[in-house]
Amino acid sequence: MKFTFLGTGTSHGIPMIGCSCRVCTSADPKNRRRRCSLYVIAAGQHLIFDTPPDFRDQVLSFGVERVDAVFLTHPHADHIFGFDDVRRFSTLQGAHIPVFGSPETIRLMRQKFEYVDKPSYGFESVPRVHFTEQTGPVTVGEAGITPLPVWHGTDTIYGFRIDADGKRIGYIPDCSRIPDDTLALLTGMDVMILDGLRPDPHPTHFCIEQCVEQLGRIGAAKSYITHLTHCSEHTELQERLGTTVCVPWDGQNVEL
Ligand SMILES: [Zn+2]
Ligand SMILES: [Zn+2]
Ligand SMILES: [Zn+2]
After folding, report:
1. How confident is the model at residue 117 (pLDDT cuts 50, 70, 90)?
2. Is the pTM higher than 0.70?
3. Residue 123 pLDDT exceeds 80
4. Mean pLDDT value of segment 88-112
């Protein structure tokens, strides 16, 4: 299994519009963070987790080759508003692409993208997808994808566990509390990627300290923090977290 961080930033992205702080103006490309998305190649299947507003740039910058399925964590703007660009893949692949999410996420996707898969000028002009409500594990080829219900403020949304090639990855980009039932699904993790927004507490996200604590409970072989704000300078945060938690950067490839 291998994966690429397509985006590791919070909803504003970094640099943030109209901000001249030292992180937003940093020359280090690791301080440029697009909105959160993950590209996983599992058992030969190319899987995308969220299609943020930066999706086109992410695909072009980091070499997304094809898309066999899309999984959506939740319908917040920073996670879905690049969805239209999935149409290049349905055109190139000449096929409908399955799109999975919770029943509520799929309901809102049908509303926000009401033109998708409707008759139009041609196959190329709209994404051709199969919206699919996911309430339990699904398989794409030989890869297994299990939803991980978590609290994001007062909403229950999804993270996902990916099982393939004898490896196990967990991805929860937005989260303020992990219920016990979900924690029970996070055993034997090779990789865990978790929301750790900023140093200060936040009503809908784990702060850095809470993220590190939760990653410690999960005890994956390798742990990553994501959904970062301009409060965190890449190198400084990595030095602060030491070897226990890795700070990823956009375009970082990891092979298991
Ligand atoms: Zn800034
Ligand atoms: Zn969110
Ligand atoms: Zn988010």
Report:
1. confident
2. yes
3. no
4. 97
Q: For domain 2-15+22-248, give the fold.
A: Metallo-beta-lactamase; Chain A (3.60.15)
Instruction: Return d(Cα 200, Cα 40) in angstroms, integer.
Output: 31
Nearest ligand for residue 22 CA: 1
Amino acid at 197: L
Q: Which residues contact 35 (CB under 8 A, 6 or more apart)?
A: 7, 9, 10, 11, 13, 50, 52, 53, 54, 78, 79
Per-residue model confidence (pLDDT) at position 219: 98
Mean pLDDT of the 147-157 span:
98
With a cut of 90, say whether residue 122 has pLDDT above it.
Answer: no
Q: Is the peptide bond before 179 cis (omega within 30 degrees of 0)?
A: no
- Ligand number nearest CA of 228 is 3
Distance (Å, rounded) from C-alpha 248 to C-alpha 251?
Answer: 9
Question: How close is the Cα of 250 to the center of ligand 3, in Å?
Answer: 15
CA-CA distance, 210 to 165, in Å (whole number)?
Answer: 31
Cβ-proximal residues to 30 (8 Å cutoff; 6+ apart), any chain: 234, 235, 249, 250
Angular region, 202: left φ>0, alpha ψ -120 to 50, beta rest: beta
Ligand nearest to the CA of 35: 3
Tokens of 22: 């030292």
CA of 181 to the centre of ligand 3 (A): 22
Ion ligand 2 contact residues with beta carbon within 5 A: 76, 174
